[in-house]
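Reviewer comment 2.1 asked that we show a complete input and output for one of the modelled complexes. We chose the D-malate case, as it is the one discussed in the main text.
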Amino acid sequence: MLKEINGIQIAYTDVGEGSPLLFVHGFPLSRGTWSKQVAGFKAHHRVIAPDLRGLGESASSPGPVAMSRFAEDLYALMQRLATGPVVLVGHSMGGYVALAFAKAYPKALRGLVLVGTKAGKDSPEAAAARRATAEKVRAEGVSVVVDAMAPKMLSPGHDDPAMVSLVRGFMAGSRPEGVIGALQGMADRPDATAWLEQIRVPTLVITGTDDAIIPPSESAALAQSIPGAKLQSIPKAGHLVAFEQAEAFNAGLSNWLTSEKATQ
Ligand code: MLT
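Response of the prediction step:
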């Protein structure tokens, strides 16, 4: 489905009925990464999964896209779809967006699930590397990022060509303008660490034990900094834990949803 949100055509999936779950993908990915959660949760929940602006099938806008801008798009989409408060599940860059969302719209949340993500900002070196990558994408196209990231998304054991080709498919639709805007937005993002203690909604942090992009230690630190947060580590899973180990991921999320009354 497609709706104009904040002047941009945003593509999204919206299926099922029940307490709403909003799934937000990472970079330079798209909502296809949540296909196994859409299938697994739609029997008991309303499941919404957008493509963030500039990525997947959503249209792009010129210039850097701040994490708070992505969060505004999510909030506007929720208003348009009349979802009411959601459990927001954010993966990696989607987690940076989820933290920006939690800060801006705490009342729109029933719970927060932070997957393979962290609260800190980029080091000066990491920010400079992102800006250099953005220039490379401008000159050479999106394949620069896809080629570099696809093999790192999965655990070494699952790094086979068939799985990698599925993962590449999740990145295939993203356009240079969108990829550049997200890279610049991530390079500019503020450090959310000091603010984490103000989170008041039930929170679950999930990490893949083989995550090579956001190491499990970052997820452990994130969980420790959020009052009452739970941490789940999923074995044999890399950065794209929800896709690679969907059964374990869905079981963990489902158990947590059941145990947290606020999220029912
Ligand atoms: C992601 O998966 O969203 C990105 O790898 C996050 C990042 O580059 O910081």
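The mean pLDDT is 96. We note this here for comparison with the apo prediction described in Section 3.2.
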